[in-house]
C-alpha cells in the first residue's frame, strides 16, 4: 500500500522557505554557469588560435611571496587558491543543508547522499574497467569522471527546466554539494603525493582561532581573512591540496544563531551570511577564472582529435560521465526506495530522476582539477583528459536536455495551476501545513 506520509517520500517538495532559498541560489548559479561556459569557450578558442603563445604565457605568469613558497603560476593560483573559495561556499551549503535545511531529516538526506555515493562509485568502476590493461599509470585518473559541476548543471537545469518541481532542484544541488565533498576527500587521500606533517599541524592553529571567532559571531574581515589565508597557505605547504582548507574553514562556521542570541529560530547564522557574501565571488569570479586557465587545450586538428578518441583514458572518462554517473545516481536512488519505506513523491516520476541523473554527468571544474593532479598540467594525457571532459559533459547536457525539456512542458501546466492557487499570504497551497 503506498505510503501517504509526504515527509517519508523521496524527493518531496520540502518547505516554502527552502524552496525560496533554492530559487535564489539557482539565480546566482545560473549566471555563474553562463560565465563558466563563456570562459571555457574563450579558453578553448584562444588555445587553438594564432595567439596560443600569449595564452600559455598567461597561464605560466608567476607571482606571489617566494619566502612563503607561494610564488605560483596564475594557473596554480586559480586551481589552488580560487577553487578554495568555491569549496568554502560548497562546504557552507552542505553544512547548512544538514543542520538547518530540509535535509536535517535523515529520511530526506539519505536520498541525495546515496545518489552522490552511487554517482562516484559507478563512474570510477567503469573508468577502471576500461583502463585495467592500460599502461603508464592510466588508473591514476579513476576519480576524474566522478565529479558533478554545480554551476554548469544548475545553469542547464535553470535554462531548460524552469517549471520543474523545486524538489528536483534541491536534490541536484544537494547531490552536487555532497559530490564535491566526496571529491575533496578523494583529492586529500589519493592525490597527496608527499605529506609534510609540520605545516599540516601548524594549520590547525589559525583554523582553531578562526573557529573560535566565528563561533563568537565575529564578522570582522581584518581578523578572519588573515586567519583563513594562513590556514590555506599552511595546508598548501603540507602537500595536501589547498582547496581542502576551504572545506575545513566552512565547517567551522555556525549555521544557526546561538541560544544567547535568541535560539535557532532567531535568525540566520554566519554560514548563511558568508554564503550570501562569497557565492557571487565563487560563481562569478573564482570558477570562471579557473575555467579560463584550465579549459584551454590544443586540439591539434583532426589527428589530435583521433588521438584523444583512441586513448583509453579519454574513453573511460566519457563513459564514466555519460553512462556511469546516471547509472550510479539512478540505481542508488532506486535502492533507497526499494529497501526503505520511502516512496517517490506523488508529484514526480522516475523519468524526472533519470533526467537529473543524466544531468549529473556534467563534470567540469573538479574533473579538470583532478585531471591536472593525476597526470600533470600541460601533458599530452592532460590534453586528452580535457577533451574527454568537454565531450562527456556536453553529451550529458544534451541528453539530459532531451529528457527534461519534455518534462518541463508537463510541469508548466501544473506550475500555472499552483500559482493561480496562492493564498493571500503568498505561500502556495501545496506548501501549506509544512514548517515555515
UniProtKB/TrEMBL annotation:
This protein's record includes keyword Transmembrane helix: yes
UniProt-listed Pfam families: Na_H_antiport_1 (PF06965)
Alphabetized UniProt keyword annotations: Antiport, Cell membrane, Ion transport, Membrane, Sodium, Sodium transport, Transmembrane, Transmembrane helix, Transport
Subcellular locations according to the entry: Cell inner membrane; Cell membrane
Catalytic function, reaction form: Na(+)(in) + 2 H(+)(out) = Na(+)(out) + 2 H(+)(in)
Cited InterPro entries: Na/H_antiporter_dom_sf, NhaA
Membrane topology (UniProt): Multi-pass membrane protein
Principal subcellular localisation of the protein: membrane
Taxonomic superkingdom: Bacteria
Residues passing through the membrane, by range: 30-47, 67-89, 110-130, 142-160, 172-191, 197-214, 281-301, 313-337, 349-375, 387-405
Record-stated family: Belongs to the NhaA Na(+)/H(+) (TC 2.A.33) antiporter family.
Role description: Na(+)/H(+) antiporter that extrudes sodium in exchange for external protons.
PANTHER family, sorted: NA(+)_H(+) ANTIPORTER NHAA, SODIUM ION/PROTON ANTIPORTER NHAA-RELATED
NCBIfam families found in the cross-reference section: NhaA
Protein's name in the database: Na(+)/H(+) antiporter NhaA
Organism lineage string: Bacteria, Bacillati, Actinomycetota, Actinomycetes, Micrococcales
